[in-house]
Design goal:
alpha/beta; 4-stranded antiparallel β-sheet; about 425 residues; 7-stranded mixed β-sheet; binds pyridoxal-5'-phosphate; about 15% strand
């Protein structure tokens, strides 16, 4: 008789984990009151709910300004445009992230220069950032991946030495702090996503944070069709409509009220997971950087040693965990695998002089490839909202899959 649920055995946690997003009548009332107001859109920008959320979220992270818009991809495009970055410029991005991090510079007209991540954090490797700088480099977009943060000390040092801007991709990092400073408040801009799976969500949406008045003004203008936002209404920008509607903004205001409590719950559960998951052979927990002074995470990322899982890849192990009732996934392939860089699908890279550098066949990111294709597994945020028992089930399932890894043989990778 097979033991693993994937082979017909009994799952560890058939009851599943709490649903996301969390909502009740407060969300219903907030949306209903926007409906009744008749003021559904995002114009004039910002609308009352948008302005309320921007102020609340910026204060929570520690920035002077928040600029709410359609999603956490255009946030980065707008940040680069507000910084004056575009045609002919280069922007350095990590090789292990969602495609949006590289898409954004392309949408702004710049070329993403992709560099590998470090072994111990799976965030952008500052040494490789430095090596990739050319006279055309204008910015770096570090990604705070999963529960990790990029080494902002080293990145700031490099950025200052080479006059580069930093746009932090904080799609996973609502609530994180680095040396007492909020994620997204360290570089020139911080970019956050409020898409359905994110821990501060309205289904869609994105926020840019900045403490620079001028940059904030330009970003507001760019997302509002280029309308002037200075008091004399003189400075127009090259913009389009990237506004978020008031229905979404109202949801964000209510979700913000729940955020800190949810963060604390995930933090406690995450620490417990780290304490007990190390007992499972072949499971590697990445060290938590002590410079992360307030810990928060979207999904939790860890590594497996495929050799200790009968040679199975992360994809197969995550699938087996799912079948045991544990919300696990492999999230990101190395950047070279995204359609963005498949020449037949994306013409921008081949239209400019960098075709050579954006040819996936010529890209090599050994650490991101090892992480994305063999070792990284994400536990979804709801694993960390089911108390100690939820964590114990996740670890029990990991141990079970490891112990019976022979049953994984032959499953499609
Ligand atoms: C690291 C990263 N950056 C950017 C994004 C883009 O956010 P959005 O889906 O809101 O455009 C996401 C999420 O999907 C992400 O995970």
């Amino acid at each position: 008789m097979a033991e693993l649920a994937i082979r017909g055995g009994t799952p560890v946690r058939p009851e599943g984990y709490p649903a996301w997003p969390v909502w009740d009548e407060r969300e219903v009332d907030a949306v209903a009151s926007v409906v009744r107001s008749g003021n559904w859109g995002g114009f004039p920008e910002p609308g009352p709910n948008a302005a309320a959320f921007e102020a609340k979220f910026a204060a929570y992270q520690g920035a002077k300004h928040g600029i709410l818009m359609a999603n956490g991809t255009v946030t980065m495009e707008v940040a680069l445009k507000a910084l004056g970055i575009g045609w002919g410029d280069e922007v350095i991005v990590p090789a292990l992230t969602f495609a949006a991090t590289a898409y954004a510079p392309m949408a702004a007209g710049a070329v993403p220069v992709i560099v590998d991540v470090t072994h111990d954090t799976w965030t952008i490797d500052p040494t490789l950032v430095e090596a990739a700088i050319t006279p055309k480099t204008k910015a770096v977009i570090p990604v705070h991946l999963g529960q990790q943060m990029a080494d902002m000390d080293r990145l700031l040092e490099i950025a200052r030495a080479h006059s580069l801007a930093i746009v932090e991709d904080c799609a996973h990092a609502h609530g994180q702090q680095w040396n007492g400073k909020g994620a997204g408040c360290i570089g020139e801009f911080g970019s956050f996503s409020h898409q359905s799976s994110k821990i501060l969500t309205a289904g869609e949406g994105g926020t840019l944070l900045t403490s620079d008045d001028e940059l904030a003004r330009r970003a507001h203008s760019i997302i509002d069709c280029g309308r002037a936002k200075d008091s004399e209404e003189k400075e127009y920008t090259f913009g389009a409509n990237y506004r978020l509607g008031e229905l979404h903004a109202a949801l964000l205001v209510t979700q913000m009220n729940r955020f800190e409590e949810q963060r604390k719950e995930r933090e406690a559960a995450g620490k417990y997971f780290e304490e007990i998951a190390t007992q499972v052979p072949g499971v590697h927990i990445m060290p938590r950087d002590p410079r992360i002074t307030r810990w928060s995470f979207y999904n939790y990322i860890f590594a497996i040693e495929p050799e200790l899982f009968g040679g199975a890849t992360n994809e197969v192990v995550a699938y087996a965990l799912e079948e045991e009732g544990i919300p696990a996934e492999v999230q990101y392939p190395p950047m070279s695998r995204y359609d963005l860089f498949q020449p037949s699908l994306s013409r921008l890279p081949v239209a400019v002089e960098f075709a050579e550098r954006l040819d996936p066949a010529k890209m090599s990111f050994p650490v991101a490839e090892d992480a994305g294709l063999r070792r990284s597994i994400y536990l979804m945020e709801n694993t960390f909202r089911a108390g100690k028992e939820g964590i114990e089930h996740a670890v029990e399932a990991l141990a079970k899959v490891q112990k019976h890894a022979d049953e994984l043989a032959g499953l499609p990778a």
